[in-house]
Every structure is written in structure tokens, then in C-alpha cells.
Amino acid sequence: MKRSFAVVTDSTADLPDEWRDRYGIEVVPLKVLFGTETFRDRVDMTDEQFFARLAASSALPKTSAPSPGEFAEVYRRLAKDHDGCISIHIGEQLSATAEAARVGASSVVGFPVNVVDSQTVSMPIAFLCRVAAESPTLADATEAVQRRVPKCRVLALLDTLRYIEMGGRVSRAQAMIGTMLDLKPLLLVADREIKSVDRVRTRSRAIPRMVEFFRTEMPVETLAVMHAQAPDEAEEIASELRRELPDLDVPIGQIGCVLGTHTGPKALGLVYLKA
Amino acid sequence: MAATKAMGVDGPLFKRALLGSLIWLGTNHEEVNRLNVFPVPDGDTGTNMLLTLQSAVEDVKESNAAEVSKIAKLASHGSLMGARGNSGVILSQIFRGFARAVEGKSSLTPAELAAAFEEAANAAYRAVNKPTEGTILTVAREAGRAAAAAASGMDTNVPRVIAAAAAGARAAVLKTPSQLQILRDAGVVDAGGYGLQLILEGMLKTVEESEPAAAMLAEARKPISPASQVSLALPEGGWGYCTEFLIEGMNLDTELIRGQIEALGNSVLVVGEPELVKVHVHTDDPTSVINLAGGYGKLLKLNVGDMSTQHRRILETEGGTATSAPRPNGIGIVAVVAGRGLVEIFRGLGVDAIIEGGQTMNPSTQDMLTAIESVPYDEVVLLPNNGNVIPAAKQVIGLTKKKVHVVETHSVPQGVSAVVAFRPERPADENLRAMKAEAERVQTIEVTHAVRDTRSNGVKVKKGDVIGLINDRLEFAGADYADVIKQALGKLGPDAYELVTVYRGQQATDAEMSRLESEIRNNYPSLEVEVQQGGQQHYPFILSVE
Lengths: 275, 546
Fold this sequence. Notes:
The structure holds two protein chains of two kinds. By secondary structure, chain A is of the alpha/beta class.
């Protein structure tokens, strides 16, 4: 079935390859900079390569949004086969990506682009893309996605504060972890904010606390388990939740390079849309 | 003043007796310190009792009350405010019982004095949850019994009753090793009991002899080095002036005065009796406070201190910041912590006020009260972080209008775990439950040097040995920090844990630190090791195992 409109997102959506192929979703990569070397997220570098390099690198990499020109190029290409496009991106409180998309879209005359600020990051954006892709029209897609934006949640358990602090997205004070101690923060991305919901000293105790907090958030419409180089723990969490929620498909996703720069390795997450 | 048969115990005599106690305990408190069973450098019993007694006598010194009841009441209140350590708290309860027993009396007959001694001991027993024989409690009771026996005899008088009490105390102290295994093992008598014996002996000397020499009095007045410094977050509107004085007058109404003073400042304390009232207030306008109080009577011992200056000094030395967003649950946290690094760690975790102290100097009830009054919350969680501080911490409850919860943390690691578990949006009961549970989950290893030869928990140690304690119990002795810690970790069973946090003390050298780190990593590769600069004294290493 040929849709009349296109669905665009960026690499921070952690969109599974299978969904990208099945729904024909366009992914615009953000960039990771190690010193003067620039890599396009998940294009020039796989997740495995990225985390290996992150571990070996003394200075932390920087990340940057795609340029408006890059967006314009994508939209111009899509305009040939589509009547319009919905472009769903990482929250504007976290990145300039959505702004770049808007500027890029304004230079493509006669092709309507509905840019959506998802207010979130990672697989909830992929869920929104799927909702859009399954909608009959661009208007329906936009309405269905906008309605779900306030329901997106990312519950992230970081193994260390080092990366997110260096990235400047969360201060220690914000996370109630202004201490020298290397606590494992449990953060919730919701309502355009990153909130600290818990702080735990050891990993083995932090994981059950994350799942416990998630249970207070139920019911949910969709759920995925995310990880950065921690597939076994992610699998354990997913199978526990699949037993509890037999009606839900609980996929496991990998945290990509750009997000990984801020979470650091061994991060785990539960991402969901509240029902 | 020579003792005579007809002499009763009136205000002036009891005041002299207390001053005599202070001198005698002051002369001998180091001896009491040496009796500490535990060979760790800890809040010393002699020092704690002396500071408590000093506080008891503080207001008494300024009072000319003729009635024994008034002097006893001042001593009771002063000791309560200055109570430090376990023995200090029990001593304050002894004073309290005594004050209750003599209420309304201007002078005591020998029999009334003996009855008051007995009631003082009873009050102390009642105040302790699980009274242990062979401690200061037993000594207080035996002193009371001996006094009662002497009072019922023929030809009795006040000096004889006090002499009997002191002798009864001495006999009871000598018997304490037969009642307590730990004393027997260590080969010492009970320190708190001995302290009480000295207090009674000091009274006896005063009553028997002439008035204490001026030189001795001066000696007793010499303040002991300040135990602790309270460092606090800056309250809104600054600190103002700490204003303290006594009002001497007639028919003073403490309630009325308190109400008027409260309108002029905060941290208000107005205590006393119709003839003498002690006032303590933090105010921006000390002149108005003084003018108001001056209308009630003569002001004594006026002391006005600029707290903003003091506060800035504290902050500068600590490099701390004094800002925090108000918490949704309205609960403040106050902790007793020593060591620059540890102070920073607790502050970083969200603690609002820190009372510096703990390991060697136990802060007083008053120190903790001041810190609690300083935080901008009406409900406060207090973390003593040391077993010896817990009793004084619990005394704070009821001394303030604020709701105070003491989470009984026995060590720095327990304190850290408790604070980490605190959530600003969670109600008090849930927070308290979580903090307590987390504190109990963590294991503490402390390493220090033995301050004396002893035997404890079946371990023989020599002065200077490196000793390792697990959760306050002496478990290992050796020559080397790393070896002792390795043994202690082995005893805990490293398989059950994943993270060791090492709080490095001031004494630990870089070489000792790196050797310890590699010992742990080599012997227990499954454990994650995190090193923090604690900066604590006396304990080169404190380890949190979880």
C-alpha cells in the first residue's frame, strides 16, 4: 500500500531497522564528534564501534544536530513521491534537531512538512513514527502523534553520572546527586523535563527499583526495554515484564551513538507511552 | 563553711556542691577517659560527662537562689541542654530526677537528700530503654541506697549522707567488672559509673572542707575546647545576632516572655523559673530584645554574637554553598559528620545542616538543637552517624517545636545510605522506613589504631595495633591496614556484595591507599571499588560494603 505522505525521524529515535524497512521511515542522522572526526550516527559507525571508541577515548565526544540543509535535502527528495510529510524529532529541550527540521522544511516550497517536537528521546519517538505510518492521512497522523506526545516516557537508569553531566543535559543538583559519590541515578524524561526519581548506590539494587517505578506508571500502550551494551540485563528485564504483561509486545532496543554519548555504557531504560 | 549537724542542703550549699563536683571531675576526667572499654578513639566518657556537668553548672553559677529546688532545676535544664554521649544523657536524667524530688523545697534534711538521690537513680532507670547492670545506673542506685541507709541512722547529717553516697558509689564501681563481661575482658571498671563517683566525691569535698579555693574554681571555669562547630545553610534574611542572657526578677512568667521574644527572632529558648529565666534568641534586633527583657528585671551574662560573621567564616573554610530549593515534603535533614570530604559528601546529598563532630567529640544536645532550629523546615530528620551520639540526639525530640525524627545511624556508611534513600517528594513515614532499611543494609568496616591494650570480643590488642571493626564490633587486629581490611572483607563474604566505598581518612598516605586498593581488587575481583576523600581523623579508612 502506498501512503500519500512520508514519515521522517532522526537517529535518536533508536528506530529498529525492521520497522524502518517495514514502514519506509526516513531516518536523518545526528552527528558524533570525536575531536575533529565527525561520524553520522548509525551510518558511519555502528553502536558497537561507538561504545568501543567511547571506552577508549579520554575526552568525551560531542554531538550535533543535522543541519537545516540536510533536512531540506531529504524533504526535497521525498517531495517527488509524496504529498506531504510528518517529521517527528527529539525533544527541543534536549536538541536543536526539530528547529533545524523546521528551517529546512521552510526552504522546500509547496511540500507541507508537519514537524513534531516529541518532547522525548529514544524509542518513544519510534512508537510515534509507527503510529504515524499506520495512519491513513497526514492530518490523522499528525493528530494521533500530537495526542500521544504528552504520554511519552523514558525511564533511564545510568550506570554512572559522568557522561550525562559532561553532556550538560542534567546537573548534579537537578538529579539530587550533587555529591562526589558515584550514584546510579534513575531519571525520568517527561513533560519536557528530566527528573530524578531515585538514586541508588549499586546496580543490582537499582534495576529492580527501575522496574518497581515502572509498575506505578502502568497502564501503558506500548513498552520497550533499551540498553547500551547490556543485552543480558535488558533481556532479563524484558522477559520479566513480558510475563507480567502478556498482551504487550516488549521489544528490546539499542541506545544509539548520540544518546549513548549522554548515557554512557551500561545504561538501561524502560520507554513507554502511557495509556 | 564548716559542716554542722543542723545544716540542711539549701540553694547556696547545693550550688557549691555542684561547683565542687565540676572541679573534681575536671581534675580527673582524663582518668575516666582511659577507662573506655573499646580501644578506639571515640567520644570519651570522661569528657562527655564533664561537658554535660559544665553545662549543668553554667546557669547555676550565676544564680543566687536561696532554694535548693531552684538550683536543682537549673542544673537539670543545663545538663539536658549540654548532654553528650550515653553517660552524659544518663547524668542529665539523674539531675532531672533529683530536681523533681526536691521540687518546692527550699532546703533538704539529710533524709530528704537521701530520698532525692534515690529518686534521681530511679529517674535514670526509667529513662533508659533496657537498663544494664554494671553501668552508671547501678552506681547511681547503690549510691542512693547507701545514702538512705546513712540517713536512717542515728546522729546523721548532710556530710554523712553524701559521704555514704560516695562510698556506695565507689563500692558499686569496683563491682562493675563482675557484672559486665566486656569490662572484665578489658580489665577496667565502668567509666560512666566512675564519673558519677567522682561527682559525688567532689560534692563531699566541698561540703566537708572550706569553700573551694579561687584558683580551683578558675580552673573549673576554663572551658574545654569547643566540641563541635555547627555549620548551617543560610536562612532567609540572614543570621542576625545570637543573643543570650539571664533575667533575674520576681514572678517572671516564662510563657509570656517567650511569646514576646518569639516575635523578635527565631531559635527562641526561654527557660527557668519565676526568679531566674534564661533567654536565647537569634534576632536581627538585639537592642529590642534587651530593652524588652530589661523591663522584667536585671539582665545577667548578656552575650550578643554576630552570627553572620561566624557563618561566613564557616562557609569560607568549607567552601560550601548555602542555597537550596525548598523540598515538596517539607522535611529537612541534619547530620553529625566530621571530616572535610565527608561534610562535602553529605552536603552534596542534600543535607541542610551539618554538626561537625562524631568520632572523638560527641556533639551536645544543644549543638544538634541549634542545627535543627536553623533549617527552614518544621520537620527534620537527624542522622547521628555514630552510636555514641544517638542518645544525645534522641534528647532533642521534645526540646523543639519542630518534629524531629532520629534515624539511628551508627556509622558514616549508614548515614550515607540513609541520605541516599531520602526522596524530597515522599512523605515522612515512607522516607523514614526507606532510610532505616537502607542504613541497616550496608556493612561498615572501620580501621583505626588501638588507644590502649585490651581484650574485646575475644580479640587481644596492644596499644598502637591496627584494629578492624565490623559494624562497631572489634574483629581483627594486625600491623597493616590492608591486611586487616582484607580479613574483614573476607569475614563479611565478598560474594554477597558488589560495591566497596573507601572513605580515606586524613592519616592515610597515598602509598597506603593504593596498596589497599590493589589488595581489594586482587583478592576480591568481583567487588567494585570507589575511593572518596573523607578527611576524617583517627580512622585512616572507613569502608562501606553493600
